[in-house]
Amino acid sequence: MAFRDDPYGAHYFGLMLKGQQNGGDLVEVAHFHECSGLKSAAQVFEIEEGGLNGRTHKRPGQSRWENIVLRTSTHTSMELLEWRDQFLQDNWRDRRDGAIIMYNEAGDEIRRFNFRNGWPVSWEGPNLKSGASELAVETLEVAHEGLDINDTQPTPPPAPPEEVPEKLDLPQIPFEYDSDVITPEGLAVIAQASQDMDRMNIDEIWLEGHTSTSGSFSYNADLAQRRADAVKEELAKHNPDRKVYTQSFGWKYPVASNSTASGMAANRRTDFYTTSYASRGRDASPIQPENRKYDPPYNHRDTAAAAEKSGQ
Q: Is-contact 148 114, C-beta < 8 A?
């Protein structure tokens, strides 16, 4: 999803002040319903040009900052009221730097209005009325000696983590008939597979060796194991720290019919899995090849599922 840079809302903000008991760090002391006075203006001097009616030059004078007015609901904290009490007792030294913080709906800071040498000009308590349902609201007015603004762009939401599949969708690693030698095409597939696993931070991989039904099951089980071991050895050249486990299943789990040359070629393969064969309930015991038992081609996994469904 693309990040949408929406205009800022003006409904969620807080006040931070430098405390006297926290090493001078800014600490958030309250959230507010309303804030006004974030304004600066310069005095304008008008100079009329002699001899030309209607021509007036405007020159800048002294700039000034308006007082910040904050309205908040009454709560248990007395910090702002105590700050005002310091000045009622003629303690004019307790001037503080502070900031008005704007937040987005997710609670992330998006803008900060920093003020210097602030002090509370006035504090007004809530209007109390019996039977009223409104919040009790206090008002604090703060004089200061200048504002600066820090605009913090909200961080775009992170991309969702890439989901690691149980089986990696990679091209088949081809082997010649009755051979455990990896072909040049197979070497290219292994190199790409290693890069994909590095990108997905996969540090363990299971290789399943499979064959067609030419020859005995025991011979094919050994051939499939040698093929899986050959792929493991080649993977170690790309990333020796990755743990690679191998398991042979012979001809037991075909992906195509062994009644055709193309189907037999498809079944001569090594599959990459990110979970172990044990967690998928793989069974490496021999079975009768599908092209000798059933027509259409026999698939051990489909037959086992059908037997389980029927209660056999």
A: yes
